[in-house]
Each structure stands twice: as C-alpha cells, then as structure tokens.
Amino acid sequence: MDKIKINSEECRIITGFERYHISESGRIYRTDTNKKRSSNSKDKIYLSENKVHFKLINGTLKQGNVYLTDNKGKFNNVAISPLIARAFGILNKKKLSHRQEIGYKDSDEKNLHYTNLFIKDRVYSNTNSKLNKEDIKHIKKYIKKGVPLRRIGQLFCVSEMQINRIKTGENWGNGKRKIKAPKAPFEIKEVGMKKYIATFDREKTVNGIRKRFTIKRNPKIPTDNLIIGIINGYKLSLKHTNITRAKKSVQNLNEYFFENKVI
Fold first, then answer.
1. How many distinct structural domains can be found in the chain?
2. Are residues 217 and 134 in the same domain?
3. 28 with 88, same domain?
C-alpha cells in the first residue's frame, strides 16, 4: 500500500526504497510491502523503525540522515528531509537541483514535519560563507579519511564542488590548486577516454611495444586487482577494487586502443 496509518500518522511509501514508509513527521518504518511476511510478523503494520541521525558540528545542528536499503539491495546513507518533501508533494521531482535546498519554517532542523518544510534557493554570498575554520578542520580530516565528497557536502550543507575546491586548495588555501588535474601521457581525442587514462600510473617504456590490457589479480585479496597495458611508449597501470568493473574497463580499453587502432 502506498499510504498507511502508523501511530496516528499518515505514512507514505518511499520511492526507490519501497520496503519503507515515511510518516508526516519524518519517522521511517520498515514495512517490507513487497515481501511475504512470516507467521510472527504477518499481523504487524511495520517490522521496525529506522533511527534518524543528526550531527552537531561546531555547535550547529546539521541535516538529519537515515540508513536505508534501496530496491537493489544497496545500503545508503540518505538525507531525510528530501525524502519527506518528495513523499508529501513538497518536492515534485526526483532530486533537488544544486541551486536548491530544504528550508525549515521554524528554523529547527529536527522538526521534520512536512508542514515545516519548504524548497528554497541555495544562497552563497561568497564561496566560504557557510563554513568557518573549525568546519574546515573537520572537512579536511574527512577528506584525508577518504569519505566521499558528496557525503561531506551533505554533512556541512554545502555543494560537492565546494568540498572539492577545499580539497584542491582553491578555497581555504593559498588560492592555488595544491592538486593539479591529471593529464594523459599522450594525445587522445576522445574526452572520456582521455580523462580515464589520466588516472593511470605510467612508466616510460620502449616505443613500439604494445600489450593489450589485462587484469593482474591477487588471489588472497579479492579487491586487489591491477589493470595493466602498454601503449605508445608507456606502461599503464591502475588499481581496481571491483573485478566486474575492472573487466568491463579492460574490454573498453582494448576495444578503443587495439580493435579501433586509434594509436
């Protein structure tokens, strides 16, 4: 059912996360509507309630997040206010644009009732207007730990682009990029392939030697895979943790450089 009543509140199914319903005040219940219930749970309206997590950074409460499993079985850390806005018709599209954000009528980000939410334009008086030195310390720690930039942006209510500028040193640095954008070691016309090859480690070798791309695997560590190939005077290598994607990459590389003979 798309709509049900739980604890005297109307609850609506969450698009993309159909095993859950979300209430008008932002409580999330696992209902497993598409699964056959066991004898112990068949009479229950919901199986469990998912906790919403709020983070306090430098005395400021940041947007609440919740852990949900999507329809494909993937575990996600999701901002909850857009879920409520979408379920109750405040947000009529799949995602907020990068120029929009959720506003709170009473300025209390813990008040997640749909009547307290509205869509507003994201305002940047300058690129660092929402952040202070203490925030930057935390952001740089998260970057160093390898936390995804989009996730860091969500925690601090700023764009992923702004987090990337902090990472490269354009913002809150000396005004210059500390990390230069990688470049391919030789000319490649196709932009997507050019950017991909730029991410490879390279080692100069004898011109004229060509070797198709293959995967070198570590049998003891399934996530330790190395894509290797030799073209245009360079031995190229790239670590890859996902063997399925690594195989697809190898196929695309060999089709581009060897079957099509672009170099």
1. 3
2. no
3. yes
Whether residue 81 sits in one domain with residue 167: no
Would you tell me how many other CB atoms lie within 10 Å of the CB of residue 80?
22
Q: Which of 120, 136, 160 is the last residue of a domain?
A: 120
**Is 109 found in the same domain as 55?**
yes
pLDDT tens digits for range 229-257: 999 999 999 988 888 889 999 999 999 99
Alpha carbon distances (Å) from 58 to 36, 119, 131, 149, 205: 46, 25, 10, 19, 52
- In this prediction, residues 165-179 reach a mean pLDDT of 67
Domain ranges, residue 14: 3-120
Query: How much is the pTM?
Result: 0.47
The pair of three-digit structure tokens given for residue 149, joined into one six-digit string: 């930039």
190 and 115 Cβ atoms separated by less than 8 Å: no
HEC assignment per residue over 197-234: HHCCEEEECCCCCCEEEEEEECCCCCCCEEEEEEECCE
Place of tokens 């604890």: 7
Q: In terms of domains, do 53 and 66 share one?
A: yes
Residue 186 lies in a domain: no
Same domain, 115 and 7: yes
